[in-house]
Write a structure and sequence with these properties.
Blueprint (H helix, E strand, L loop, with lengths): L1 E4 L2 E7 L5 H7 L5 E4 L5 H10 L4 E4 L5 H8 L8 E2 L1 H7 L2 E4 L3 H11 L8 E4 L3 H4 L1 H4 L8 E7 L3 H9 L6 E7 L5 H11 L4 E4 L2 H13 L4 H16 L4 H23 L1 H6 L3 H31 L1 H11 L3 H13 L2 H12 L3 H4 L4
Parallel strand pairs: 3-4, 3-6, 4-5, 6-7, 7-8, 9-10
Antiparallel strand pairs: 1-2, 2-10, 8-9
Helix pairs in contact: 1-9, 2-8, 10-14, 11-12, 12-17
Length: about 350
Amino acid sequence: MKIKFGSIEENIITRKEFPLQKSKNILKNEIISVLGYGVQGPGQSLNLRDNGFTVIVGQRKNSKSWNKAIKDGWIEGKNLFSLEEASERGTILMYLLSDAGQISFWPTLVKYLTKNKSLYFSHGFGLTFQKKTNIYPPKWIDIFLVAPKGSGTSLRRLFKEGRGINSSYAIYQDYSGKSLDKVLSIGIGIGSGYLFETNFKNEVYSDLVGERGTLMGAIQGIFSAQYQILREKGHSPSESFNETVEELTQSLMPLVSENGMDWMYSNCSTTAQRGALDWWKKFRDVTIPIFKELYKEVSSGNESNRVIEYNSDKNYRIKLEKELENLKNSELWKVGSIIRKLRPNKKNNKDKN
């Protein structure tokens, strides 16, 4: 359906107009091969399997992800295979290895991209920056993507709750003339709340900016700065964390998600209301130059160069673990670990009378 956002019209696909049964009928003769069982692989493959699609998983044998797949109910030789065998068996190959993994495995995968197969992505990185990744697909296959706007963990969790994460979709190459039906069918099959149209370049640009911006990079920076100032001014660790992180994540963001920021402003104290209205533009004006710089780095390819360089380092995992350990051991997140344990769970929160 066409949805207007002000003067801009977008193409939105919902479960109502593209029901699950329609998706299953379209893909009834396809073998969906999920290559990679890391971030997105588990959620997408399990949701497809639970929805009744024919799905197999390809993963490197004896890896942590291989063992995780077995724990999740995939059976070696039946629906769990090596990357090579899964690539050969599948008709729709869902390329869900990490960006670095996709670069490494591509010379092998391309051998299995025979005529009329389909290649699926959940991130436009490999093809948008193909001069750096050397991912050049053949002309005789369909190529498309569905990119859930959330983690694979959230995709699975919300699916099991009967809800879903919104996803973007795009077609890169339509050899068969049936790519639209295929991509929408998989999008519905993995449990998307709704699907909105994009292209590979826009998907990867917005994704890289979002990850480095409000989704993870900027929010961690703001958390760290506010917590630091409160602590320097004599506020306790508990008070500083609650005013910086806990109230936002546990109370306010769910309400903003449900009702919007204007509703949030209308339903807080007049003191909070006035302060928020006076200060939000100052934060916007300070951060706009940073976001301009960030978008320039992404669109120029400089950011992708850094990603490929770092991820290709043989010691990357060791260095990554050290960085994450430093973050985990910062006072901010050590306090957070303690406070999360103090939250009442559903069982303890029930009225026992």
